[in-house]
Amino acid sequence: MDLVAEIRQGNVRAIARAISLIEDLEPGAESLVDALYPDTGGSLVLGVTGSPGAGKSTLVDRLITLERRRGRKVAVIAVDPSSPFSGGAILGDRLRMQSHATDPGVFIRSMASRGFLGGVAAATGDVIKVLDSAGYQSIFIETIGVGQTEITIVELSDIVLLVLMPGAGDEIQAMKAGVMEIGDVFVINKRDLPGADKLRTEVEYVLSLKSPNPAAGRGIGPAGVAANPIVMTSAFHDEGMRQLQEAIDTYRTEGERSGWLAERRRFRLERELLGMLNRKVHELMDVHIEVSKQLPAWTDSLYRHEARPYALINEQIRKFLRERRSDREN
Amino acid sequence: MDLVAEIRQGNVRAIARAISLIEDLEPGAESLVDALYPDTGGSLVLGVTGSPGAGKSTLVDRLITLERRRGRKVAVIAVDPSSPFSGGAILGDRLRMQSHATDPGVFIRSMASRGFLGGVAAATGDVIKVLDSAGYQSIFIETIGVGQTEITIVELSDIVLLVLMPGAGDEIQAMKAGVMEIGDVFVINKRDLPGADKLRTEVEYVLSLKSPNPAAGRGIGPAGVAANPIVMTSAFHDEGMRQLQEAIDTYRTEGERSGWLAERRRFRLERELLGMLNRKVHELMDVHIEVSKQLPAWTDSLYRHEARPYALINEQIRKFLRERRSDREN
Is A56 helix (H, G, I), strand (E, B) or coil? Predict the structure, then answer.
């Protein structure tokens, strides 16, 4: 049977093979993704982000259990900007989810960024399509690591869970960091720690300041959704998890009703298309003006002050245009 | 007198005007930056990043005082992904630096990202060149906000100060987040809080795991620099600040001696060149395949499953190539 048919039937080995093709940028990956594309659209993609140490992995682990209990297939993609330091962290996170290791209805995969982060985002977008077409109804994307991956998560998710915990490092600071904007459902985890109620009050306050304009922030605010739910949990003690699941369900239903979810999915597709276009153009530039090969020499001439930045770049752009033209004569 | 000459003489109004030209993407900005470029290279660019609430602004404020005391001109660029929430935070940070507001040897400017973050990075890179050519010996870049700006800081800085504070949200979590890799000089601020010594021990441990391979991580590890200094400070109480200044001085001297600083500056230039090339190519694509105009329609056809992602993008790329060729006939 061919790979496309096997993936459609949910064959785990076929799925794993497809993911490897995507990660390794194999020539067949594009047509595979295109072939699976008509079957996509059935999954809910849940981004999970928030403070390091807030208990994201444990929370996802509990949500998997709840989703499995109502018969849904679940996939988890851990997006990890690979680092000499994070190896241990990944291992720890994976171990925490080991309770699901033998469940055929749960698929867990880490995506490491060996090269540039734009590459992970692209690969993750394609992997989501594979898992979507294979019938995983809930796909969690969890970040391990800093910064840029959080933005990646927002661009890939239908609903973003922002996980906070009480403590000195969070609270007002978290809000100051502007991270509040990216959340849809707010989770105050480790609710048994001191300061949990105070954190809730602060989150409520910051959310009350949130512009009602749906074009604010990232341009895809939840128009028609009354408010961002705040749920207090203790994933470790398995408390508040049903309420969290319900809050997600309600948020999704509201988003479907109001058209907000459709709007966000359009946004996701738009970002993906732009990313794909960028990568293709880079490939072209590499062919025609040998960017990767020439870059060190360009940098050197700038470093030695033998060139000036815009003059250099504008010359290369002109060369790129000429090369494209001369193609016609060949 | 022309703008270039005025900037070279350190005229603050001319500098402010140049920055506005750059931020507003005025046509003259490119040639202005090119004209100033030969005078650049004398500044040390210090990126300041770390946990929100760790006291970065107060720390920079104290460092400005120390730098001024030895007669150095200082500039501060606060890079801020503008957000409906962060307005108050910026104001607070600026107020904390107000002690230097009347000092003509100190230039403070916020750069807001109205559009995409790549835009801020580009503009900030050009603003650094203006300030560098105007004779500011120390240029601090401070982030306000989340994630992606931290990466921006690393790509723009000679030396990155990573500011941590004791407390539940930091410690092991900070290291797990992989943020440790981006620091050169580690500052444990608020050293009077409980847990400061424990945090230091943890930082030392994580740094001891750091790969000695200079190509690890972001590819510009401090080869030849024995170790990343860790300095404990209380910026608020003005304690440990001289030690921090000395640690930065030593790190710089070592970096100059070993060639590591030159290596990092080459890396910075390389990233800048790539960013410039990208922006130019985007402008070209907008002209030839009207990306901005067509993107909503492409997205719609994908959303309705009337197209497939790679087929669509590959068709547009082919069209881009044809359009470039047909130019020749006009």
Answer: helix
